[in-house]
TrEMBL record:
Gene3D superfamilies: NAD(P)-binding Rossmann-like Domain. It comes from Streptomyces dengpaensis. PANTHER family: PKSB (PTHR24322), RETINOL DEHYDROGENASE 10 (PTHR24322:SF736). CDD domains: SDR_c. Transmembrane segments: none annotated. It comes from the Bacteria. The keyword Membrane does not apply. Pfam families: adh_short (PF00106). Belongs to the short-chain dehydrogenases/reductases (SDR) family. Keywords: Oxidoreductase. This is SDR family NAD(P)-dependent oxidoreductase. The keyword Oxidoreductase applies.
Length: 242
């Protein structure tokens, strides 16, 4: 799939899977608007993409726990473009530890704010730009932890709470935005391997039935969903955990 006519916003793109998304979608021709909590982290990824010969990439700071920061991010993007075709909600702080008492109150608040409140406010702020597109998609990286009854992760209870909030939000959002032509696509991966997209490992990582889920396959799922005709609303991808 080529993305030459797509304008894509990606949150938390300064490292890990968000960085992979930014690099791969830029490689496919998309104009990418990427954010990270620190501007320096976003600019590092922007520069990596520039080094690959892609100039249509923009870096911004966005703290998903701060409503003013989210608003500033959306306003800054709006100064560059009159539309957004794909919004990818990748940002959400991970918090480890199966013991509720193991995390501080501040860490719990930060985790739930970034994943739950941050996702809601990001969609709210970018919705006007999405509605200006003739192919608007909202993609959210939830987690298997957002699936009812899931218990196989060592993530903290607050992370489970944030992901369950994302799941509930995207579920109702899908129904309420469909009349306006906006597709809402959620991914519920378990822990997955994410090779550096600039390394040879990205191309050579085994992807057989016995292997863990990879970042490469998650990118492919997103590309598959957004490439479908506009009458095809793929609400969610759920993955078998090995």
């Amino acid at each position: 799939m080529k993305l030459d006519n797509y304008r894509v916003v990606i949150t938390a793109a300064g490292r890990d899977f968000g960085r992979s998304l930014a690099i791969r979608l830029a490689d496919l021709g998309a104009e990418v608007f990427l954010s990270a909590r620190s501007l320096a982290a976003a600019e590092r990824v922007r520069d990596e993409i520039h080094d690959r010969g892609h100039q249509r990439v923009h870096a911004f700071a966005c703290d998903l726990t701060d409503p003013a920061s989210i608003s500033d991010f959306a306003s800054s993007v709006a100064r560059h473009t009159d539309r957004v075709d794909i919004l990818i909600n990748n940002g959400s702080r991970y918090l480890d530890g199966p013991d509720l008492q193991s995390a501080s109150d501040a860490d719990i608040i930060d985790t739930i704010s970034s994943g739950a409140t941050g996702t809601v406010l990001t969609v709210k702020r970018f919705l006007p730009l999405l509605l200006n597109s003739d192919k608007p998609d909202v993609v959210t990286m939830v987690s298997a932890c957002g699936t009812a009854g899931h218990h196989r992760s060592d993530a903290h209870d607050a992370f489970y709470a944030a992901k369950s909030a994302q799941a509930g939000f995207t579920e109702i959002l899908s129904k309420r935005l469909r009349p306006q032509g906006v597709r809402v696509i959620s991914l519920y991966p378990p822990d997955f391997d994410n090779a550096d997209p600039l390394s040879e490992e990205w191309k050579t990582t085994p992807r057989e039935s016995k292997d863990p889920l990879t970042g490469q396959s998650l990118v492919d799922c997103i590309l598959f969903a957004v490439a479908q005709p506009r009458d095809c609303f793929i609400k969610a991808f759920h993955f078998e955990q090995v």
